[in-house]
Amino acid sequence: MSPAGLALVAFVIWAICKILNVTSAAKPAQIYGGDKKFVQHVSSHVPDLILPYVPTRLWGFSGHIQSVLYSLIGHIKCPWPTGNRVILNLSDGATLTYDLFVPLDLHPQGDITLAVCPGICNSSESVYIRTFVHFAQRKGYRCTVLNHVGALKDVKVTSPRIFAYGCPKDYAAMVEDVHATYPETSIICIGFSLGGNIVTKYAGDSTFHKTKKILGCVSICQGYDAGTAMDYLLQWSNFRRVYLFMMTERMKRVIMAHQAQVLCDDTKTKFLLSERLIFSAATLPELDEAYTRRVHGFDSVTALYTSSSCITYLNGIRVPMVFINSLDDPIVPEPLLEPVKKFVENHPESMMIVTSHGGHLGFHEGGILYPNPVKWLDRIVVSLADGLVTHSQKKRTA
Question: Among residues 88, 255, 271, 290, which one has the fewest Cβ atoms lying within 10 Å of its Cβ?
Fold first, then answer.
């Protein structure tokens, strides 16, 4: 082979190793929190936190592949838990649904419900939600999963709006209905990505009445500040602009799937909507200017993002709170985590878990090519729920 050919081969090998990040080492998660008793008690139920998180060897050390590739192909033999769909008619005319999954075993601490809020455009049918629910059911938890308005093609949208980035009204309606249906159940709120923002804002927003049956909340892979996060997503660094394009297209597909309702003539006239501007939007800020902020009643995109961000509601949180993020998350860069690190250092009953690897909602572990059937994240979140349950019981008996 010629020297040029050898150089090309060497470059390709170097590029593959760089993308796969194969020289990286497995590390334990970093844990932040000023309330040492709370952190110690909850962490005692999650012994894996002191051990290195070992991603799938060939591709798991790449945050991009964790976030994109395996979320597309899903798990090998991914479970499909069977649930019952609950339909709620909201005061604004929207039809809200959530899926209820019964526990497959008895929980040692009694009747506990995990109230799950998925990520952007996701539902109970999303792969990562299905795997989490199945694992939680086996550990004795009832699970309820919010289906974001518009996310399911077979559920008709009955109002001019689809789901909102940071409005907890839909999630609050689900929690209230769960409490009314199962008044004796204790509830742990869990949010993934966008859902983490909604759950955190729900916990900190005093305008929402919250049952005392809520034992705590877990937020996973959210960005906390929508405006600052969007500034990062608009940059090409770490391919963030590509992820933004993918999210924009998913939002547009949701609108398109329910176009007859959300873009009918009356709605377009009432909210001054232009189909041309909506479907030609190349970024979320463009789409939010053309559609989202108008339908949800905001004067500007900046006002929409400010209202949608849980960062301004943190000090209102009065329940135990756990945040989980990854340093190699291509969508949520590390600077977005700093305000939350400071918050947990000064706020009681709160902690933050930050891993070196895992990507955005990835956290696959084990194996060389094929990961273990249960994700690290699923095991950790269910163990954290156990810790929040016993922490609540400990407070009651103190």
Answer: 88
Q: What is the largest CA-CA distance in the chain?
A: 76
**Could you tell me if 21 and 346 are in contact, meaning their C-beta atoms sit under 8 angstroms apart?**
no
- Tell me the pTM: 0.94
Tell me if 383 sits within 8 A of 46, measured CB to CB.
Answer: yes
CA-to-CA dists, residue 142 to 7, 134, 139, 375, angstroms: 57, 10, 9, 19
Place of tokens 């033999």: 77
* 90 φ/ψ angles, rounded to the nearest 5 degrees: -85, 165
What is the predicted pLDDT for the residue at 14?
Answer: 47
- How many whole angstroms separate alpha carbon 256 and alpha carbon 190? 29
User: In Å, what is the CA distance from 278 to each residue of 82, 255, 281?
Assistant: 36, 9, 6
Which tokens belong to 114? 């995990």
Segment 329-376, tens digit of pLDDT = 999 999 999 999 999 999 999 999 999 999 999 999 988 888 888 899
Catalytic (active-site) positions: 193, 329, 360
Q: In angstroms, what is the C-alpha Rg of the chain?
A: 21
For residue 32, the SS3 value is strand
261 confidence band (pLDDT: 50, 70, 90): very high
Residue 198 in tokens: 């909604």
